[in-house]
Design brief:
The chain is mainly α and about 190 residues long. The protein has eleven helices and no strands. The chain is globular.
Length: about 190
């Protein structure tokens, strides 16, 4: 219960832009929240990721990013509990979607291996459940947000296209064209 109360207090603190506290209190609060996001207890992860969903204002998102919570939130995207996973994915979509701070969130996501993690989610074996569909759609939305930067696009696609993606064409030189036409005409003529 103490952890849940502390987590509830933490969520209220983050959402409140008028809270007056010392920077030490704030730093300690974000450290605790990071601990909840990485906890072995599923209920704490559920509460911590649910608290992240409540953060929608620019100031709150800036604090989350500044205090290094993007990486632990990214790790929760592939957590075995569907509620934790969905909350984390949804929160990261919000953080990386709009505003000036979204660029920093994208950089933090790239630093935390989000391309590999989101690709893994998308390529998981298909399940015919609504949760599976939402997870895949959320992961695709995050991948789309990551490609807003050159670095994200390179991490997703690579620097060069594979040979199979670019069909090879034969270059016909001017002199060869007439010879090929004469040879082809003999072969394709109908018998008389």
């Amino acid at each position: 219960w103490q952890n849940r109360i502390l987590l509830s207090h933490t969520a209220c603190f983050i959402m409140s832009s008028t809270t007056t506290s010392t920077s030490n209190d704030e730093a300690e609060m974000y450290k605790d929240l990071k601990g909840f996001l990485l906890s072995d207890r599923t209920d704490l992860r559920q509460s911590a990721t649910a608290a992240m969903l409540q953060i929608r204002e620019r100031e709150g998102i800036e604090k989350v990013i500044k205090n290094g919570l993007v990486k632990p939130l990214t790790r929760n995207c592939s957590y075995h509990d569907p509620q934790v996973s969905m909350n984390a994915l949804n929160a990261l979509i919000n953080f990386s979607s709009s505003g000036e701070i979204a660029s920093q969130c994208v950089e933090d996501l790239l630093d935390s291996g989000a391309v590999n993690r989101m690709t893994e989610i998308v390529l998981l074996p298909k399940e015919n459940t609504e949760t599976w569909r939402k997870r895949v759609n959320f992961a695709m939305a995050i991948l789309a947000n990551l490609t807003r930067t050159e670095r994200g696009s390179i991490q997703l696609i690579g620097k060069t296209l594979p040979d199979e993606a670019v069909p090879k064409i034969e270059i016909i030189e001017e002199g060869d064209d007439e010879e090929d036409n004469n040879n082809n005409n003999d072969e394709h003529q109908l018998p008389t």
